[in-house]
Sequence to fold (397 residues):
Amino acid sequence: MTTTQTPTVPTEPLDVRPTPLALLLLGRESDPRSERGVECPGDLPAPSDPDLVARARAAKARLGEKVFILGHHYQRDEVIEFADVTGDSFKLARDAAARPDAEYIVFCGVHFMAESADILTSDAQQVILPDLAAGCSMADMATAEQVAECWDVLADAGVADVTVPVSYMNSSADIKAFTGRHGGTICTSSNARRALEWAFEQGEKVLFLPDQHLGRNTAVRDMGLSLDDCVVYNPHKPGGGLTAEQLRAAKMILWRGHCSVHGRFSLESVEDVRARIPGVNVLVHPECKHEVVTAADYVGSTEHIIKMLDEAPAGSAWALGTELNLVRRLAAAHPDKQIVFLDKTVCFCSTMNRIDLPHLVWTLESLADGKLVNRIQVDAETEHFAKLALEQMLALP
Fold:
């Protein structure tokens, strides 16, 4: 596609200033709170190795059709270059299931995504995560033990029988299995409204796990519920920090979890970018705080954000409230539009960025040499109930 006749507008740089956490956010330090905070076995190639790209190409060529590489939108460009498909977590898991001939599914994402791929693929396929320390802080905010205790609290309040769990795709296999055991469904950021509408047809209340912001924004902004209809269950407080009367009065019981990337955007970020760029369109992810979503012009999932930018007119200005790797990639893909990051401080997904080219090269070379590394495998019982919840999502009208 030629762009010689496409009008361009001067763009300001993304103006992202590193913070003391920059090394962590770039995946160069460990995160003790990550979902799976362990180191990979084996010797990784040095990040400075000038032959990394050639080695990755050679190892992928040796594997041929045996390997299928999935790249999440938030991955580094150096990793996306080798992905066979890109997308959000659920799209990638389904893409993997659609490739039954691929023996190895290399998931360049985070741990819960690889778990979902293992659940949806056949037993003959093996899902690999290049760095086992690539977890998800949001998914780690709801453990199986905490959620079981929460259900006991709901039972003591007399509301468990009329409560339907709805769990975000960004959750562990254990939480998906809990959801399946209790007749609930999984949702993504693009079908959360449909999931909630279905859940309210099954019961009077919803327990929404683990992202409070997506649950609140969907219920209030999209479905017309009030903020008073929502309460937040804090797993670190006795009884979730709620009384039985509060649980009985609530329609949405929101788990106290959030995305470390989207949760950092603020109302001040929106006001600042509007002051700097007159006429800017503010487009944010629904994992952002309610006040940010309310102040934005547009709200949508990662796939929706990409689609809106693809269809936006030349010369338009956009401030995006989502992960920085994606924002930079969109800015590079659309030089005819002014695309800036909503916040001025570095905002990479710290654990997603642990998947880098050295880890990918080590993974591919190990597989090409016949050595299976970093396999993600969900046990049969957990897989069974998690699949029930995922299948319920697929059956949503």
